[in-house]
Specification:
The protein is α+β, with helices and mostly antiparallel strands and 198 residues long. The chain has 3 helices and 12 strands. Bound molecules: fe (ii) ion.
Length: 198
């Protein structure tokens, strides 16, 4: 896939590729990518562009992502969401791949959970406990490690986020969790909408 036309996003692709080429441990790699995301999120052209993106998340279960880029060699992808104000997602994970969720505009609250049972990961029944909750605003990056269980709550206004994932949604399974029944469901993640980032 061609690099996105937006200059700051092209630069971000080059920086990530240079980091992958160093063969870092995954934790270190994603910590470094997170640092290099700062200038992108502050880029005036990206902020302008995000104002034209269509609404993608209206709450569970209707989740879509814009797809800007998939790297032909390393497989990482650039996505985006426009989250409806006050919407609440399912409790879910992003499968066993890294995600960096960088907010461009608006505010969100991220709830974090952990599993306390020994049932099979993909089957359950799962016992889930909330462990934390934190607010994010423009320029903040929420790092979601492989398997981390969470829920996103939209703020008082719609919010836009730029997302880096280690793999394209649909190439691995993600899980949603029912807190009351312990039901674990596998799914292919958000529906992808190819979009030119310019
Ligand atoms: Fe999520």
């Amino acid at each position: 896939m061609e690099k996105p036309p937006l200059p700051a996003a092209r630069k971000f692709v080059d920086r990530i590729r240079a980091l992958y080429a160093q063969n870092l441990e995954a934790d270190k790699l994603w910590a470094e990518i997170r640092v290099t995301m700062g200038p992108l999120l502050a880029d005036p052209q990206l902020i302008e562009s995000s104002k034209t993106w269509p609404l993608t998340v209206e709450g569970a279960p209707k989740v879509k992502n814009l797809l800007f880029y998939e790297d032909p060699d390393y497989g990482f992808v650039f996505n985006a969401t426009v989250r409806k104000a006050k919407s609440v997602t399912s409790v879910h994970d992003h499968g066993d791949v890294w995600t960096l969720y960088g907010l461009i505009e608006g505010h969100e609250t991220m709830y974090r959970y952990k599993r306390t049972d020994d049932a099979p990961r993909n089957e359950g029944p799962a016992q889930i406990e909330q462990v934390s909750c934190h607010d994010i605003g423009p320029g903040d990056v929420d790092a979601v490690p492989p398997g981390a269980i969470h829920q996103e709550h939209g703020g008082p206004e719609n919010s836009m986020a730029f997302i880096v994932r280690a793999q394209k949604a649909g190439t691995f399974k993600q899980r949603t969790y029912d807190l009351e029944t312990g039901d674990v469901r596998l799914n292919d993640g958000p529906t992808l909408i190819p979009h030119v980032l310019s």
